[in-house]
Amino acid sequence: MANLRVGLIGLGMMGRHHARVIREVEGLDLVAAADAVGDPHGVARDLPVLGSVQELIAAGIDMAVVAVPTGMHEEVGLALAAAGIHALVEKPIAASVPAGQRLVDAFAGKGLVGAVGHIERFNPALQSLRRRLANGELGEVYQIATRRQGPFPSRIADVGVVKDLGTHDFDLTAWLAQSRYESVFAQTTTRSGRQFEDMVSATGKLANGVITNHLVNWLSPMKERLTVVTGAKGAFVVNTVTADLTFYENGTVATEWDSIGAFRGVSEGNVTRLAIAKPEPLRTELEAFRDAVLGLGSDVVTMAEGQDTLLVAEAVLESSRTGQAVRIQS
Question: Sheet containing 234-239: which strands, arranged edge to edge?
């Protein structure tokens, strides 16, 4: 079988990584690259740098990766759908809920694979954790808490921290718990002088009763990417930067020191750092997209799922504006 012909539009920070990994994945050929402002990282190599999505389409591609700024996702995605081309669109799916729904409808209407690049789902530590949760290793899940903090990335200009970074956590939380968000309450602040929020604290509740907490900002001098899942048998902690997964087990040894035992809900048990394979998440994501296009699998983040995540992000922003909890549309 001939390799799939892949076009890449957007050659910036994410585009350069896509270009590298597309060339590494078996069954894919990068045959066209486009970016209206050029190729700052030289990732096109011997390919001409095209100026538009229409030129990309004209190159005769089977599938495309869309790594342009969020505000351009709708225009580029709709053009690809109209041309009958499968597409992986970087997250968030679009800049607004109506735009996201138009993309969902366009790809579904043509029977095309439309995927969203929520890459944290492909982090090996989170994938291992999801399997463990599904197998009941934690028992009932009580809470999922995330912290995603670090310095401001100057490349982001058209959205705030909620849609750029927070969407990672909203998506991975619903995916780990296998449940949609029911409601959120959030507060944001803007400290960097930009028009968009750069810090958010959000709490939520999923339809299955799991409670959530998310701290996200671009104002911290250190980089932190942490997911903590607490349940009946203990807690799993994931560092997604290093793809480390650690299990903190509830203790089975009785606490003999009465003054301590009186105020501890559970006792401390064994701590196990779990050994897992660590393939590159972007490679796993692109392999899943390839397999979906070939009809061999369905592990991509669908556009409908990406739209659900965008609904949560919009609800977080609405809550921060109104000071009220917001229920998520079902």
Answer: 268-274, 244-250, 234-239, 224-231, 141-149, 211-217, 199-206, 181-189, 326-327
Residue 305, domain member (yes or no) = no
Range of the domain at 163: 121-278+310-327
Look at residues 315, 288, 320, 300 and name the one whose alpha carbon lies nearest to residue 114: 300
Q: What is the DSSP string of 88-125?
A: EEESSS-SSHHHHHHHHHHHHHTT--EEEE-GGGG-HH
Residue 275 identity (one-letter amino acid):
A
Same domain, 115 and 251: no
141 and 238 together in one domain: yes
CA quadruple 131, 134, 136, 138: dihedral, nearest 10: 70
Domains of the chain: total? 2
Torsion on CA atoms 249, 253, 257, 259, rounded to nearest 10: 50
Write down the pTM of the prediction.
0.93
Note whether 102 and 170 are same-domain residues: no
Decide: helix, strand or coil at residue 241.
Answer: coil
Token pair for 57: 């389409």
Where does 39-104 show beta strands of DSSP type E? 49-50, 63-66, 86-90
Listed residue (295, 330, 302, 328) closest to 314, CA to CA: 328
The alpha carbon of 222 is separated from its chain's Cα centroid by a whole number of angstroms, namely: 21
pLDDT tens, residue by residue, 155-196: 666 789 999 999 999 999 999 999 999 999 999 999 888 889
Nearest to 48 by CA among 65, 23, 67, 31: 31
